[in-house]
Write a structure and sequence with these properties.
Blueprint: H1 9-12, H2 14-24, E1 32-33, H3 34-41, H4 45-57, E2 61-68, E3 71-78, H5 80-97
Antiparallel strand pairs: 1-3, 2-3
């Protein structure tokens, strides 16, 4: 019997999975604004902030505070570590869903 793959608990929460999935669709160095991600995912600012903090603490998301003109802006991107974690997560999920596929 093969070992059951573990799903990364940081990514596995539904909201964080949605965040990582959305950011993984960008090119490596592309960044999006907090309001864009919030609107795209239909999340409240508070809820998104909490999940971004958890992803940032894990090293999966980079949060950059800057200004666009005089307006404060928060830019977000998936780090290399975050991309790798998401790739491993999706591979583990595929293995759970179709255990015979990798045999």
């Amino acid at each position: 019997m093969t070992e059951t793959p573990e799903l990364d608990p940081v990514i596995h929460a539904q909201a964080r999975l949605r965040v990582v999935s959305a950011l993984s669709a960008l090119r490596d160095d592309d960044k999006v604004t907090f309001p864009w991600l919030q609107e795209s995912l239909g999340m409240t600012a508070g809820n998104l902030s909490v999940h971004l903090r958890k992803l940032e603490d894990a090293g999966y998301v980079e949060v950059t505070k800057t200004h666009q003109g005089r307006t404060p802006a928060t830019l977000l991107r998936l780090t290399r570590r975050g991309r790798l974690a998401f790739e491993e997560y999706t591979a583990a999920l595929r293995a759970l869903l179709d255990p015979g596929a990798s045999s």
